[in-house]
Amino acid sequence: MKQDVPPPYTAVARHAVFPTPRHDEAARYNFLTAFNKYLAGTIGIGNKIAYDSRVLPAFREEHGRDPADRFEIRDAMNEDPWHRYWSALKRNSMEMRQQNGRSITLRQIDELSAKVRQFNEGRDTLQLDPGLPAPHYMDAADIHCMPGNYQGEERPGDMSAGANYDSGLFATTGGGLGALSDGGGQALVEWIRRERPGWTPRRILDLGCTVGHNIVPLALAFPDAEVIAIDTAAAVLRYAHARAQALGATNITFIQMNAEDMSRFPDGHFDWVQTTMFLHELSGKALPQVIRESARVLAPGGLMFHLEQPQYSDDMPLYEQFIRDWDAFNNNEPFWSAMHALDLKKVMEEAGFPPDSQFTARVLAVVDRTIFPQAAEGAQEDHGRAAAWNAYGAWKPEA
Amino acid sequence: MTEESIDWIARAGRRAKGKRPDTLHDYNAERTLSILLAVAAEVSVLKERLDTVERLLDAKGTISRADIEAYQPTGEAAYERAVTAKEYVARIMRGMQQEMEAMQAAPERPMAEISAELRDS
Question: For A161, which residue in chain B has the nearest alpha carbon?
Protein backbone atom coordinates (compact mmCIF):
# COMPACT_ATOMS: atom_id res chain seq x y z
CA MET A 1 0.00 0.00 0.00
CA LYS A 2 1.29 3.43 -0.93
CA GLN A 3 1.33 5.55 2.22
CA ASP A 4 -0.12 9.04 2.24
CA VAL A 5 2.88 11.10 3.37
CA PRO A 6 3.93 14.72 2.95
CA PRO A 7 6.97 15.80 0.91
CA PRO A 8 10.21 16.56 2.81
CA TYR A 9 10.90 20.09 4.01
CA THR A 10 13.90 20.17 1.68
CA ALA A 11 11.40 20.37 -1.23
CA VAL A 12 10.83 24.00 -0.23
CA ALA A 13 12.17 26.38 -2.87
CA ARG A 14 14.98 28.50 -1.46
CA HIS A 15 14.65 31.95 -2.95
CA ALA A 16 17.40 34.48 -2.31
CA VAL A 17 16.16 35.64 1.11
CA PHE A 18 14.74 32.35 2.39
CA PRO A 19 16.14 31.31 5.80
CA THR A 20 18.39 28.34 5.05
CA PRO A 21 17.60 25.34 7.27
CA ARG A 22 20.28 23.01 8.60
CA HIS A 23 19.76 19.28 8.23
CA ASP A 24 18.31 18.88 11.73
CA GLU A 25 16.13 21.98 11.50
CA ALA A 26 14.53 20.59 8.34
CA ALA A 27 14.14 17.23 10.13
CA ARG A 28 12.40 19.02 13.02
CA TYR A 29 9.89 20.51 10.56
CA ASN A 30 9.48 17.04 9.01
CA PHE A 31 8.53 15.67 12.41
CA LEU A 32 6.02 18.47 12.99
CA THR A 33 4.55 17.95 9.52
CA ALA A 34 4.09 14.22 10.19
CA PHE A 35 2.76 14.97 13.66
CA ASN A 36 0.22 17.57 12.43
CA LYS A 37 -0.91 15.25 9.70
CA TYR A 38 -1.42 12.50 12.25
CA LEU A 39 -3.35 14.76 14.64
CA ALA A 40 -5.66 16.05 11.89
CA GLY A 41 -5.84 13.15 9.47
CA THR A 42 -5.41 9.96 11.49
CA ILE A 43 -6.89 10.72 14.90
CA GLY A 44 -8.72 14.03 14.33
CA ILE A 45 -11.86 11.94 13.91
CA GLY A 46 -11.42 10.92 17.56
CA ASN A 47 -12.93 14.28 18.53
CA LYS A 48 -16.11 13.41 16.64
CA ILE A 49 -16.14 9.93 18.16
CA ALA A 50 -15.83 11.41 21.65
CA TYR A 51 -18.63 13.83 20.83
CA ASP A 52 -21.01 11.25 19.41
CA SER A 53 -20.27 8.46 21.86
CA ARG A 54 -20.22 10.28 25.18
CA VAL A 55 -20.16 14.10 25.11
CA LEU A 56 -23.46 14.56 23.28
CA PRO A 57 -25.28 11.78 25.22
CA ALA A 58 -24.08 13.31 28.51
CA PHE A 59 -25.18 16.77 27.37
CA ARG A 60 -28.64 15.46 26.47
CA GLU A 61 -28.87 13.68 29.77
CA GLU A 62 -28.01 16.81 31.72
CA HIS A 63 -29.94 19.41 29.71
CA GLY A 64 -32.72 17.42 28.10
CA ARG A 65 -31.87 18.92 24.70
CA ASP A 66 -29.12 19.22 22.10
CA PRO A 67 -26.45 21.94 22.27
CA ALA A 68 -27.78 25.23 20.95
CA ASP A 69 -24.55 26.53 19.44
CA ARG A 70 -20.85 25.77 18.92
CA PHE A 71 -19.94 27.38 22.24
CA GLU A 72 -22.03 24.91 24.21
CA ILE A 73 -20.29 22.12 22.32
CA ARG A 74 -16.91 23.63 23.12
CA ASP A 75 -17.71 23.88 26.83
CA ALA A 76 -18.84 20.26 26.86
CA MET A 77 -15.91 18.98 24.77
CA ASN A 78 -13.44 20.84 26.97
CA GLU A 79 -14.46 18.48 29.76
CA ASP A 80 -13.71 15.39 27.66
CA PRO A 81 -10.28 13.92 28.50
CA TRP A 82 -9.53 12.66 24.98
CA HIS A 83 -10.34 16.01 23.35
CA ARG A 84 -8.40 17.87 26.02
CA TYR A 85 -5.29 15.80 25.40
CA TRP A 86 -5.65 16.15 21.62
CA SER A 87 -5.87 19.93 22.06
CA ALA A 88 -2.79 19.93 24.29
CA LEU A 89 -0.83 18.00 21.66
CA LYS A 90 -1.93 20.35 18.89
CA ARG A 91 -1.19 23.48 20.87
CA ASN A 92 2.32 22.19 21.60
CA SER A 93 2.82 21.44 17.92
CA MET A 94 1.99 25.07 17.06
CA GLU A 95 4.39 26.35 19.71
CA MET A 96 7.16 23.98 18.54
CA ARG A 97 6.75 25.19 14.97
CA GLN A 98 7.29 28.77 16.14
CA GLN A 99 10.37 27.90 18.16
CA ASN A 100 11.93 26.03 15.24
CA GLY A 101 11.18 28.81 12.74
CA ARG A 102 12.49 31.49 15.06
CA SER A 103 15.57 29.43 15.83
CA ILE A 104 16.36 29.00 12.12
CA THR A 105 15.71 32.66 11.39
CA LEU A 106 17.32 34.31 14.39
CA ARG A 107 20.59 32.34 14.32
CA GLN A 108 21.17 33.76 10.80
CA ILE A 109 19.55 37.15 11.40
CA ASP A 110 22.65 39.17 10.46
CA GLU A 111 23.16 37.35 7.18
CA LEU A 112 19.46 37.46 6.32
CA SER A 113 19.21 41.15 7.21
CA ALA A 114 22.10 41.93 4.89
CA LYS A 115 20.48 40.05 2.01
CA VAL A 116 17.13 41.72 2.60
CA ARG A 117 18.77 45.12 2.79
CA GLN A 118 20.37 44.60 -0.61
CA PHE A 119 16.94 44.21 -2.16
CA ASN A 120 15.32 47.01 -0.16
CA GLU A 121 17.76 49.89 0.13
CA GLY A 122 16.93 52.88 -1.99
CA ARG A 123 13.87 51.28 -3.60
CA ASP A 124 10.68 53.30 -3.84
CA THR A 125 8.74 50.03 -4.06
CA LEU A 126 8.96 49.69 -0.26
CA GLN A 127 7.21 52.50 1.59
CA LEU A 128 7.17 52.30 5.38
CA ASP A 129 5.29 54.58 7.75
CA PRO A 130 6.93 54.48 11.19
CA GLY A 131 4.09 56.60 12.59
CA LEU A 132 1.41 54.01 11.81
CA PRO A 133 0.23 52.38 15.04
CA ALA A 134 -0.48 48.63 15.22
CA PRO A 135 -4.28 48.29 15.21
CA HIS A 136 -5.76 47.07 18.50
CA TYR A 137 -6.63 43.68 16.96
CA MET A 138 -2.96 43.15 16.09
CA ASP A 139 -1.92 44.00 19.62
CA ALA A 140 -4.45 41.89 21.54
CA ALA A 141 -2.65 38.55 21.19
CA ASP A 142 0.19 37.08 19.14
CA ILE A 143 -1.71 35.47 16.28
CA HIS A 144 -1.16 31.73 15.78
CA CYS A 145 1.19 31.74 18.79
CA MET A 146 3.72 33.69 16.70
CA PRO A 147 5.85 35.44 19.34
CA GLY A 148 5.84 39.18 18.64
CA ASN A 149 3.10 38.78 16.02
CA TYR A 150 3.58 40.16 12.49
CA GLN A 151 4.91 43.47 13.83
CA GLY A 152 7.45 42.16 16.35
CA GLU A 153 11.02 43.37 15.86
CA GLU A 154 14.06 41.86 17.56
CA ARG A 155 15.87 45.13 16.84
CA PRO A 156 15.10 48.30 14.86
CA GLY A 157 14.53 47.64 11.17
CA ASP A 158 14.09 43.90 11.72
CA MET A 159 12.51 41.54 9.15
CA SER A 160 12.76 38.25 11.04
CA ALA A 161 8.99 38.05 11.70
CA GLY A 162 8.49 37.74 7.94
CA ALA A 163 11.32 35.24 7.53
CA ASN A 164 9.97 33.06 10.33
CA TYR A 165 6.48 33.17 8.84
CA ASP A 166 7.77 32.13 5.40
CA SER A 167 9.95 29.41 6.91
CA GLY A 168 7.11 27.57 8.65
CA LEU A 169 4.20 27.78 6.20
CA PHE A 170 5.34 24.57 4.49
CA ALA A 171 5.37 22.59 7.72
CA THR A 172 2.06 23.91 9.06
CA THR A 173 0.25 23.04 5.82
CA GLY A 174 2.12 19.78 5.19
CA GLY A 175 3.41 21.12 1.89
CA GLY A 176 -0.15 21.81 0.72
CA LEU A 177 0.81 25.29 -0.46
CA GLY A 178 3.68 24.14 -2.68
CA ALA A 179 7.38 24.90 -2.95
CA LEU A 180 7.02 28.65 -2.48
CA SER A 181 3.98 28.40 -0.18
CA ASP A 182 2.16 30.32 -2.90
CA GLY A 183 -0.53 27.78 -3.82
CA GLY A 184 -3.16 30.36 -2.82
CA GLY A 185 -1.77 33.00 -5.15
CA GLN A 186 -1.37 30.46 -7.95
CA ALA A 187 -5.01 29.51 -7.43
CA LEU A 188 -6.04 33.15 -7.92
CA VAL A 189 -4.22 33.22 -11.26
CA GLU A 190 -5.85 29.99 -12.40
CA TRP A 191 -9.28 31.12 -11.22
CA ILE A 192 -9.23 34.49 -13.03
CA ARG A 193 -7.91 32.96 -16.27
CA ARG A 194 -10.79 30.50 -16.25
CA GLU A 195 -13.40 33.01 -15.07
CA ARG A 196 -12.43 35.99 -17.24
CA PRO A 197 -10.08 34.81 -20.01
CA GLY A 198 -8.17 37.75 -21.43
CA TRP A 199 -9.10 40.17 -18.62
CA THR A 200 -6.11 42.32 -17.70
CA PRO A 201 -6.42 44.39 -14.53
CA ARG A 202 -4.45 47.64 -14.64
CA ARG A 203 -4.10 48.01 -10.88
CA ILE A 204 -4.33 45.33 -8.21
CA LEU A 205 -4.49 45.88 -4.44
CA ASP A 206 -3.67 43.17 -1.89
CA LEU A 207 -4.72 43.82 1.72
CA GLY A 208 -2.89 42.28 4.69
CA CYS A 209 -0.22 40.88 2.42
CA THR A 210 2.17 39.61 5.15
CA VAL A 211 5.16 38.16 3.23
CA GLY A 212 3.50 38.66 -0.16
CA HIS A 213 3.34 34.95 -0.96
CA ASN A 214 -0.22 35.26 -2.27
CA ILE A 215 0.30 38.38 -4.39
CA VAL A 216 3.60 37.53 -6.12
CA PRO A 217 1.97 34.96 -8.47
CA LEU A 218 -0.64 37.56 -9.52
CA ALA A 219 2.03 40.19 -10.10
CA LEU A 220 4.02 37.76 -12.24
CA ALA A 221 0.89 36.72 -14.16
CA PHE A 222 0.06 40.37 -14.91
CA PRO A 223 3.51 41.92 -15.37
CA ASP A 224 2.10 45.16 -16.80
CA ALA A 225 -0.25 45.68 -13.86
CA GLU A 226 0.62 48.11 -11.10
CA VAL A 227 0.33 46.06 -7.91
CA ILE A 228 0.07 47.53 -4.41
CA ALA A 229 0.34 45.29 -1.35
CA ILE A 230 -0.35 46.75 2.07
CA ASP A 231 0.08 45.58 5.65
CA THR A 232 0.29 47.36 9.00
CA ALA A 233 3.50 45.54 10.02
CA ALA A 234 6.84 46.86 8.81
CA ALA A 235 8.64 43.67 9.88
CA VAL A 236 6.79 41.50 7.36
CA LEU A 237 6.80 44.19 4.64
CA ARG A 238 10.60 44.45 4.66
CA TYR A 239 10.86 40.72 4.09
CA ALA A 240 7.95 40.65 1.61
CA HIS A 241 9.55 43.31 -0.58
CA ALA A 242 12.90 41.56 -0.68
CA ARG A 243 11.21 38.21 -1.34
CA ALA A 244 9.14 39.63 -4.23
CA GLN A 245 12.18 41.31 -5.75
CA ALA A 246 14.17 38.08 -5.43
CA LEU A 247 11.40 36.25 -7.28
CA GLY A 248 11.29 38.85 -10.05
CA ALA A 249 7.97 40.45 -9.07
CA THR A 250 9.27 43.99 -9.44
CA ASN A 251 5.84 45.49 -10.23
CA ILE A 252 4.66 45.31 -6.59
CA THR A 253 4.89 48.29 -4.28
CA PHE A 254 4.67 47.32 -0.62
CA ILE A 255 3.16 50.02 1.57
CA GLN A 256 2.74 50.13 5.34
CA MET A 257 -0.89 51.13 5.63
CA ASN A 258 -4.04 50.22 7.56
CA ALA A 259 -6.77 48.96 5.18
CA GLU A 260 -9.40 50.72 7.31
CA ASP A 261 -8.11 54.05 6.00
CA MET A 262 -6.85 54.00 2.43
CA SER A 263 -7.50 57.70 1.84
CA ARG A 264 -4.19 57.88 0.02
CA PHE A 265 -5.92 56.14 -2.91
CA PRO A 266 -8.63 57.92 -4.92
CA ASP A 267 -12.07 56.40 -5.51
CA GLY A 268 -12.17 53.72 -8.19
CA HIS A 269 -8.38 53.42 -8.36
CA PHE A 270 -8.07 49.61 -8.55
CA ASP A 271 -9.50 46.96 -10.86
CA TRP A 272 -8.99 44.17 -8.33
CA VAL A 273 -8.97 44.27 -4.52
CA GLN A 274 -7.80 41.00 -2.96
CA THR A 275 -7.54 39.51 0.52
CA THR A 276 -6.25 36.00 1.25
CA MET A 277 -6.84 34.60 4.75
CA PHE A 278 -6.90 38.15 6.08
CA LEU A 279 -10.45 39.06 7.14
CA HIS A 280 -10.40 36.68 10.14
CA GLU A 281 -7.50 38.62 11.64
CA LEU A 282 -9.43 41.91 11.90
CA SER A 283 -12.16 42.89 14.37
CA GLY A 284 -15.93 43.37 14.36
CA LYS A 285 -15.67 47.07 13.55
CA ALA A 286 -12.57 46.90 11.35
CA LEU A 287 -13.92 44.27 8.96
CA PRO A 288 -16.92 46.22 7.59
CA GLN A 289 -14.77 49.35 7.42
CA VAL A 290 -12.14 47.48 5.36
CA ILE A 291 -14.87 46.19 3.04
CA ARG A 292 -16.27 49.73 2.68
CA GLU A 293 -12.83 51.15 1.89
CA SER A 294 -12.21 48.31 -0.55
CA ALA A 295 -15.50 49.11 -2.29
CA ARG A 296 -14.57 52.78 -2.50
CA VAL A 297 -11.15 52.26 -4.08
CA LEU A 298 -12.50 49.63 -6.50
CA ALA A 299 -13.31 50.79 -10.03
CA PRO A 300 -16.76 50.07 -11.53
CA GLY A 301 -16.54 46.67 -13.22
CA GLY A 302 -13.71 45.72 -10.86
CA LEU A 303 -13.31 42.58 -8.80
CA MET A 304 -13.31 42.20 -5.02
CA PHE A 305 -12.18 38.72 -3.95
CA HIS A 306 -11.74 37.33 -0.47
CA LEU A 307 -10.30 33.88 0.21
CA GLU A 308 -11.18 32.42 3.60
CA GLN A 309 -12.01 29.16 5.27
CA PRO A 310 -15.76 28.47 4.93
CA GLN A 311 -18.19 30.70 6.82
CA TYR A 312 -20.42 29.09 9.41
CA SER A 313 -23.96 28.96 8.10
CA ASP A 314 -27.16 27.40 9.38
CA ASP A 315 -26.44 24.53 6.99
CA MET A 316 -23.12 23.71 8.69
CA PRO A 317 -23.54 21.23 11.55
CA LEU A 318 -22.76 22.73 14.96
CA TYR A 319 -20.08 20.13 15.59
CA GLU A 320 -18.24 21.19 12.42
CA GLN A 321 -18.50 24.83 13.50
CA PHE A 322 -17.02 23.85 16.87
CA ILE A 323 -14.04 21.98 15.41
CA ARG A 324 -13.41 24.76 12.87
CA ASP A 325 -13.31 27.13 15.86
CA TRP A 326 -10.38 25.32 17.47
CA ASP A 327 -7.78 27.88 16.38
CA ALA A 328 -9.84 30.76 17.76
CA PHE A 329 -9.41 29.61 21.33
CA ASN A 330 -6.32 27.41 21.19
CA ASN A 331 -4.07 29.03 18.60
CA ASN A 332 -4.59 32.75 19.31
CA GLU A 333 -7.02 33.67 16.55
CA PRO A 334 -9.33 35.84 18.65
CA PHE A 335 -11.51 37.14 15.77
CA TRP A 336 -11.76 33.80 13.97
CA SER A 337 -14.98 32.62 15.62
CA ALA A 338 -16.93 35.87 15.28
CA MET A 339 -15.69 36.47 11.74
CA HIS A 340 -16.76 33.07 10.49
CA ALA A 341 -20.25 33.59 11.90
CA LEU A 342 -20.67 36.90 10.03
CA ASP A 343 -23.01 37.20 7.09
CA LEU A 344 -20.30 38.37 4.68
CA LYS A 345 -22.81 38.76 1.87
CA LYS A 346 -24.74 41.26 3.95
CA VAL A 347 -21.55 43.13 4.87
CA MET A 348 -20.65 43.34 1.19
CA GLU A 349 -24.17 44.40 0.28
CA GLU A 350 -24.01 47.21 2.83
CA ALA A 351 -20.74 48.31 1.23
CA GLY A 352 -22.47 48.71 -2.11
CA PHE A 353 -22.39 45.29 -3.76
CA PRO A 354 -25.98 44.21 -4.58
CA PRO A 355 -26.64 40.46 -4.12
CA ASP A 356 -26.66 39.85 -7.88
CA SER A 357 -23.11 41.24 -8.14
CA GLN A 358 -21.85 38.77 -5.54
CA PHE A 359 -20.72 35.17 -5.91
CA THR A 360 -18.95 32.42 -4.01
CA ALA A 361 -16.47 29.89 -5.36
CA ARG A 362 -14.42 26.96 -4.08
CA VAL A 363 -10.72 27.49 -4.66
CA LEU A 364 -8.03 24.84 -4.20
CA ALA A 365 -4.31 25.53 -3.90
CA VAL A 366 -2.50 25.18 -7.22
CA VAL A 367 0.81 23.38 -6.70
CA ASP A 368 3.02 20.86 -8.48
CA ARG A 369 1.03 17.71 -7.73
CA THR A 370 3.94 15.45 -8.62
CA ILE A 371 5.58 16.54 -5.34
CA PHE A 372 2.99 18.31 -3.24
CA PRO A 373 -0.24 16.90 -1.82
CA GLN A 374 -3.81 17.90 -2.40
CA ALA A 375 -5.24 19.23 0.86
CA ALA A 376 -7.44 16.75 2.69
CA GLU A 377 -11.02 17.88 3.09
CA GLY A 378 -13.87 16.59 5.21
CA ALA A 379 -13.14 14.32 8.16
CA GLN A 380 -9.36 14.36 7.62
CA GLU A 381 -9.11 18.11 7.09
CA ASP A 382 -6.69 20.13 9.17
CA HIS A 383 -9.29 22.77 9.95
CA GLY A 384 -8.00 26.32 9.73
CA ARG A 385 -4.94 25.35 7.71
CA ALA A 386 -6.36 23.40 4.75
CA ALA A 387 -5.01 24.64 1.42
CA ALA A 388 -8.55 24.91 0.10
CA TRP A 389 -10.71 27.98 0.53
CA ASN A 390 -14.09 29.51 -0.05
CA ALA A 391 -13.96 32.66 -2.12
CA TYR A 392 -16.41 35.45 -1.33
CA GLY A 393 -16.38 37.82 -4.28
CA ALA A 394 -18.20 40.52 -6.19
CA TRP A 395 -17.90 42.36 -9.46
CA LYS A 396 -18.60 46.02 -8.74
CA PRO A 397 -21.57 47.21 -10.77
CA GLU A 398 -20.82 49.69 -13.53
CA ALA A 399 -21.80 53.20 -12.42
CA MET B 1 30.61 30.61 12.55
CA THR B 2 30.10 34.30 13.08
CA GLU B 3 28.81 35.67 16.35
CA GLU B 4 25.19 36.68 15.99
CA SER B 5 24.20 40.02 17.40
CA ILE B 6 21.27 38.68 19.41
CA ASP B 7 20.86 35.73 21.78
CA TRP B 8 19.00 33.63 19.22
CA ILE B 9 18.63 30.58 21.47
CA ALA B 10 16.86 32.59 24.16
CA ARG B 11 14.82 34.61 21.66
CA ALA B 12 13.71 31.55 19.67
CA GLY B 13 11.76 30.24 22.64
CA ARG B 14 10.05 33.50 23.46
CA ARG B 15 6.47 33.20 24.68
CA ALA B 16 3.56 34.31 22.49
CA LYS B 17 1.32 36.99 24.01
CA GLY B 18 -2.09 35.64 24.98
CA LYS B 19 -3.26 33.46 27.87
CA ARG B 20 -2.40 29.82 27.21
CA PRO B 21 -5.39 27.45 27.35
CA ASP B 22 -5.28 25.22 30.43
CA THR B 23 -6.21 22.20 28.40
CA LEU B 24 -5.27 19.39 30.76
CA HIS B 25 -6.39 21.13 33.98
CA ASP B 26 -3.06 19.99 35.44
CA TYR B 27 -0.05 22.29 35.59
CA ASN B 28 2.52 19.53 35.89
CA ALA B 29 1.04 17.42 33.13
CA GLU B 30 1.08 20.42 30.76
CA ARG B 31 4.75 21.14 31.43
CA THR B 32 5.74 17.49 31.19
CA LEU B 33 3.87 17.03 27.90
CA SER B 34 5.78 19.98 26.40
CA ILE B 35 9.09 18.38 27.39
CA LEU B 36 8.03 14.96 26.16
CA LEU B 37 6.94 16.28 22.74
CA ALA B 38 10.16 18.24 22.31
CA VAL B 39 12.18 15.12 23.13
CA ALA B 40 10.00 13.06 20.80
CA ALA B 41 10.79 15.55 18.03
CA GLU B 42 14.52 15.30 18.74
CA VAL B 43 14.44 11.50 18.54
CA SER B 44 12.78 11.84 15.16
CA VAL B 45 15.50 14.31 14.13
CA LEU B 46 18.22 11.86 15.20
CA LYS B 47 16.57 9.03 13.27
CA GLU B 48 16.43 11.20 10.18
CA ARG B 49 20.07 12.24 10.56
CA LEU B 50 21.15 8.63 10.91
CA ASP B 51 19.15 7.76 7.81
CA THR B 52 20.97 10.53 5.94
CA VAL B 53 24.34 9.17 7.08
CA GLU B 54 23.42 5.64 6.03
CA ARG B 55 22.16 6.69 2.61
CA LEU B 56 25.23 8.81 1.94
CA LEU B 57 27.54 6.01 3.08
CA ASP B 58 25.69 3.61 0.81
CA ALA B 59 26.14 5.95 -2.10
CA LYS B 60 29.64 7.27 -1.48
CA GLY B 61 31.44 5.09 1.09
CA THR B 62 32.71 8.12 2.97
CA ILE B 63 31.04 11.38 3.92
CA SER B 64 31.60 14.77 5.49
CA ARG B 65 29.37 16.94 7.67
CA ALA B 66 28.86 19.18 4.67
CA ASP B 67 27.43 16.22 2.77
CA ILE B 68 24.87 15.70 5.52
CA GLU B 69 23.89 19.36 5.56
CA ALA B 70 23.52 19.44 1.79
CA TYR B 71 21.53 16.22 1.54
CA GLN B 72 18.13 16.66 -0.17
CA PRO B 73 16.14 13.46 -0.50
CA THR B 74 13.95 13.09 -3.57
CA GLY B 75 11.76 10.37 -5.03
CA GLU B 76 11.89 7.02 -3.26
CA ALA B 77 14.27 8.24 -0.53
CA ALA B 78 11.95 11.13 0.36
CA TYR B 79 9.02 8.75 0.44
CA GLU B 80 10.76 6.17 2.62
CA ARG B 81 11.85 8.79 5.13
CA ALA B 82 8.33 10.25 5.32
CA VAL B 83 6.92 6.77 5.92
CA THR B 84 9.49 6.27 8.70
CA ALA B 85 8.37 9.54 10.30
CA LYS B 86 4.72 8.55 9.92
CA GLU B 87 5.36 5.18 11.53
CA TYR B 88 7.34 6.84 14.34
CA VAL B 89 4.47 9.23 15.08
CA ALA B 90 2.01 6.36 15.00
CA ARG B 91 4.15 4.49 17.54
CA ILE B 92 4.48 7.33 20.04
CA MET B 93 0.79 8.16 19.63
CA ARG B 94 -0.41 4.63 20.30
CA GLY B 95 -2.03 5.65 23.59
CA MET B 96 -4.25 8.30 21.98
CA GLN B 97 -5.11 6.05 19.05
CA GLN B 98 -6.10 3.12 21.26
CA GLU B 99 -8.17 5.36 23.53
CA MET B 100 -9.94 6.51 20.37
CA GLU B 101 -10.69 2.88 19.50
CA ALA B 102 -11.86 2.27 23.07
CA MET B 103 -14.49 5.00 22.66
CA GLN B 104 -15.87 3.07 19.69
CA ALA B 105 -15.84 -0.32 21.42
CA ALA B 106 -18.88 -1.82 23.11
CA PRO B 107 -18.89 -1.20 26.88
CA GLU B 108 -16.27 -3.42 28.52
CA ARG B 109 -16.25 -5.00 31.96
CA PRO B 110 -13.22 -4.97 34.29
CA MET B 111 -10.86 -7.90 33.65
CA ALA B 112 -11.30 -9.14 37.27
CA GLU B 113 -15.02 -9.59 36.63
CA ILE B 114 -14.39 -11.60 33.45
CA SER B 115 -11.66 -13.54 35.23
CA ALA B 116 -14.03 -14.60 38.02
CA GLU B 117 -16.65 -15.56 35.47
CA LEU B 118 -14.24 -17.67 33.41
CA ARG B 119 -12.99 -19.46 36.50
CA ASP B 120 -16.41 -20.97 36.99
CA SER B 121 -17.64 -21.40 33.42
Answer: B12
